[in-house]
Amino acid sequence: MSEAVLGVILAGGLARRMGGGDKALKTVGDRTILDRVVERLRPQCGRLIINANGDPDRFSGFGLPVVPDNVPDFAGPLAGILAALDHAAAAGPDADLVVSVAADTPFLPRDLVGRLLRERDAAGAELACAGSDGRTHPVVGLWPVRIREELRRALTQEGERKIDRFTARFRMAVVEWPTVPLDPFFNANRPADLEEAEALLGRLAD
């Protein structure tokens, strides 16, 4: 566990491809996707929060702070990351990094934070994000709290909404994970993905 890292589960999307509602509260096996994300990420962080808009009571069973976007109009994952950076800054100097993950990724690696930290430092980079199967996953990333004002300007003054365009301003380490026995960054966007996630459960070794 890294005490200096605040974990944020980004659950603020509109889930249009899933037909609306909260993707994170859909079930895979006998547990919600969010329950699986929390179980995997919580041991890796000093503290954990959920970023979500609307009524926070729907997440009350998880016992975690629910932090809404502080940029209006569902500005995407960058808004959730900014909310987490602001939350970490308000908590004091002990949390100087935020790790973000998507709320619809039930198979996150249990070494996510440790590898992002190590490989970011080894590369002398400012940010780090996950990669697998030749693709980068910038929503699954490590963010220093000190960039929050630059992110705020990008969102509120420049209208930036694309996460990869924002991260291109910084040196980023991309940390690759294997996709055998499964891609740990599989995400459930559509109803059919829930069926695929059920099938993938049998491949898990942990």
Commentary on this structure:
By secondary structure, this protein is of the alpha/beta class. It has one domain: Alpha-Beta Complex (Spore Coat Polysaccharide Biosynthesis Protein SpsA, Chain A). 29% of the residues lie in helices and 24% in strands. The protein contains six helices and nine strands, in the order E-E-E-H-E-E-H-E-H-E-E-H-H-E-H. It has helices at 33-41, 77-91, 112-123, 148-156, 163-167, 191-200, and strands at residues 2-10, 27-28, 31-32, 45-51, 66-67, 97-102, 127-132, 135-144, 172-177. A seven-stranded mixed sheet has the order 5-4-1-6-8-7-9, with helices on both faces. A two-stranded antiparallel sheet has the order 2-3. A hairpin with a 2-residue loop joins strand 7 and strand 8 (135-144). Helix 2 packs antiparallel against helix 4 (148-156). The two termini are 18 Å apart. 41% of the residues are buried. The model has no long low-confidence stretch (mean pLDDT 91).
